[in-house]
C-alpha cells in the first residue's frame, strides 16, 4: 500500500514510518526541510516537499496515495488560532482529495474528559467548528465518511513517551530543572494517560489494516498516572524535591502547561484493544522516567 504521511519526521510520525516500512508498505512522507527529507530517504521512504500551509502539496500527496495518515500539527501554543486554522485546512484538503474513493484516512487527535469516569472511544469529541481545539478536525474528518472516505480517528495520550521524547514530559522536566522543584497541582491526584512511542506506532499500523470507517482508536497504554507520581519520578531523576503547586499558581509555575497538568483525564483503550488485538508492550511512563533518558 502506498501511504502518504504528514508529520512523517516527527516524534510519532518517524516511528510510524518505521512500522509501515517494516510491514512492506511504500511510504511517502511530507517534509518541510532538507534535514527531514534526508532522514526519510535514509529510512527508505519517499519524500514530498511541503508543510501544513502548502495545501496543494498535501492534496496531491493524498490524491496519489492508497491511504493517508495525518500526524502533523503546528503545536504553536502562542498562537492557537493559527494552529487550529492550519489543522482544519489540512484535514479539509485531504478529505476533498479522497472523497468518493473509500481509501483510509487516519488522523491524529487527542483525548478528552468524562467527569467521574474514564473517557472511552464511544465518547464523541465536543470540538466542532474552526474556532474549537484542533479546529474541530476530528469531527470534520468524520463528516467525510458519508462522502466515501474511510476515516479513522487516532486519539493519542498527552504523553507519548520514550527515549528522545520532545513532548510534554520533557517540558515538565525542563520546568523542574529551572525552578529547582518538581511540581504537581494541588494534591497531585489528577491523572494523565500515557503510551510508549513504539506501542503508538504499532497501533497506527494495526488501525490502517483493521479499523472500519468511522472508528475511533485510543493510543493509551496506561489509563492514568497520578501527576504526583510523575512529579516525584522527575524529582528523583533531577535530585530535586517534589512539591505541591496551588491550582491558582499553576500557570505562573508551569507556563501554558499549567492549564493541562492539573486536569484529570483518565482514558480507556479497552475497545481499541479488543478491535485491533493491540496489547501495549513498551515500558511504562514511570519506567521511562527511571532511566536517564529524560535527564541527560
From TrEMBL:
<dbReference type="InterPro" id="IPR001509">
    <property type="entry name" value="Epimerase_deHydtase"/>
</dbReference>
<feature type="region of interest" description="Disordered">
    <location>
        <begin position="113"/>
        <end position="138"/>
    </location>
</feature>
<dbReference type="GO" id="GO:0004029">
    <property type="term" value="F:aldehyde dehydrogenase (NAD+) activity"/>
</dbReference>
<dbReference type="Pfam" id="PF01370">
    <property type="entry name" value="Epimerase"/>
</dbReference>
<dbReference type="InterPro" id="IPR051783">
    <property type="entry name" value="NAD(P)-dependent_oxidoreduct"/>
</dbReference>
<dbReference type="GO" id="GO:0005737">
    <property type="term" value="C:cytoplasm"/>
</dbReference>
<dbReference type="InterPro" id="IPR036291">
    <property type="entry name" value="NAD(P)-bd_dom_sf"/>
</dbReference>
<protein>
    <submittedName>
        <fullName>SDR family oxidoreductase</fullName>
    </submittedName>
</protein>
<feature type="domain" description="NAD-dependent epimerase/dehydratase">
    <location>
        <begin position="3"/>
        <end position="214"/>
    </location>
</feature>
Amino acid at each position: 500500500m502506498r501511504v502518504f504521511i504528514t508529520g512523517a519526521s516527527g516524534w510519532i510520525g518517524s516511528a510510524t514510518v518505521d512500522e509501515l516500512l517494516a510491514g512492506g508498505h511504500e511510504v511517502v512522507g511530507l517534509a518541510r526541510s532538507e534535514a527531514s527529507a534526508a532522514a526519510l530517504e535514509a529510512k527508505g521512504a519517499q519524500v514530498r516537499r511541503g508543510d501544513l500551509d502548502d495545501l496543494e502539496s498535501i492534496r496531491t500527496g493524498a490524491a496519489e496515495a492508497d491511504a493517508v495518515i495525518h500526524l502533523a500539527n503546528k503545536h504553536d501554543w502562542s498562537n492557537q488560532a493559527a494552529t487550529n486554522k492550519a489543522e482544519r485546512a489540512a484535514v479539509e484538503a485531504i478529505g476533498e482529495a479522497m472523497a468518493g474513493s473509500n481509501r483510509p484516512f487516519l488522523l491524529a487527535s487527542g483525548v478528552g474528559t468524562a467527569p467521574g469516569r474514564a473517557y472511552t472511544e464511544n465518547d464523541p469529541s465536543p470540538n466542532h467548528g474552526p474556532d474549537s481545539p484542533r479546529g474541530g478536525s476530528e469531527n470534520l474528518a468524520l463528516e467525510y465518511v458519508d462522502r466515501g472516505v474511510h476515516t479513522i480517528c487516532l486519539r493519542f495520550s498527552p504523553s507519548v513517551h520514550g527515549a528522545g521524547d520532545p513532548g510534554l514530559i520533557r517540558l515538565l522536566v525542563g520546568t523542574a530543572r529551572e525552578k529547582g522543584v518538581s511540581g504537581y497541582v494541588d494534591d497531585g491526584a489528577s491523572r494523565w494517560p500515557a503510551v510508549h512511542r513504539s506501542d503508538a506506532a504499532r497501533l497506527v499500523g494495526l488501525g490502517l489494516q483493521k479499523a472500519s470507517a468511522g472508528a475511533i482508536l485510543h493510543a493509551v497504554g496506561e489509563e492514568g498516572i497520578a501527576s504526583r507520581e510523575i512529579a516525584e519520578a522527575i524529582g528523583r531523576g533531577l535530585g530535586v524535591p517534589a512539591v505541591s503547586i496551588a491550582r491558582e499558581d499553576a500557570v505562573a509555575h508551569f507556563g501554558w502547561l499549567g492549564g493541562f497538568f492539573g486536569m484529570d483525564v483518565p482514558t480507556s483503550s479497552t475497545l481499541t484493544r479488543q478491535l485491533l488485538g493491540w496489547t501495549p508492550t513498551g515500558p511504562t511512563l514511570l519506567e521511562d522516567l527511571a532511566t536517564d533518558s529524560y535527564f541527560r
